[in-house]
Amino acid sequence: MRSVKFETGPPGSSIVIVELSDLTLGKSSKEFEEYEQELFVEIRKNNKLEYLRKDPLIYSYRVWHWTYGMDPTKTRGSSEAVLRRVLQGKNLWRISDLVDVINLSSAYHKIPISLIDASKIEGQLTLRRAQKNEEFHRIGGEVIICRGREIVLADEIGIVCYGYAIHDSERTKVTSESKTVLVLLFGTIKATKELMTKAVIFTTDMIERWVDCKVSEPSRYVSPAPY
Predict the structure, then answer these.
(1) How many CA atoms lie within 13 A of 130 on its CB side?
(2) pLDDT means per 10 residues in the chain (227 residues)?
(3) Using CA of residue 3, residue 81, residue 200, residue 195, what is the dihedral sign?
(4) Domains: count for the chain
(5) Is residue 181 part of a domain?
(6) Spatial distance between the Cα atoms of 1 and 16, rounded to a whole number of angstroms
(7) CATH code of the domain containing 33
């Protein structure tokens, strides 16, 4: 199991890692899509688009990004992005059974979740500030040139997750060849240990139900670092 080292992170920052092994990636089933629609009804009942910016949990992630010079109204955190899509009456993208589960769970719990192919990681995972002019290649090919303030998760080669789970890296993305994958849930001070535990259980239960893989016990890492 990989660990996370904190070089930065406001008080209350936490990352929970779950390792998936013996993964066989596939397409989401019709049964999953029906289940997803049922959760959409619950999500839309419990959240309103016009009040989302005042939601305490969503707002806590916005504050995290503002702290590091990143405008969350222009580049939204991943959980807010998928939740907004659901509240706009849209369906989520069909990518793979694992990614579809993660997007649904993130929208449901409002907690950002990243996926990393463990075989593509070199050395220690570290939450740190980006270096000035450091390049990040996001999934899809866009290159972001960092200003040197941004919060990022990186290994010894470079950035694997830009922001506090805004974009995942093209280099470490999950593909049909991936066999061991890390699921990372990112918490703030508003994402309490209890809330994170519920989100982890919900997410891993869905993975065990809908994805062909083995699921490890979660490991939680909490920031001791001043920011």
Answers:
(1) 24
(2) 90 94 97 97 96 93 93 91 96 96 98 98 97 96 94 97 95 97 96 95 98 98 81
(3) positive
(4) 1
(5) yes
(6) 11
(7) 3.50.40.10
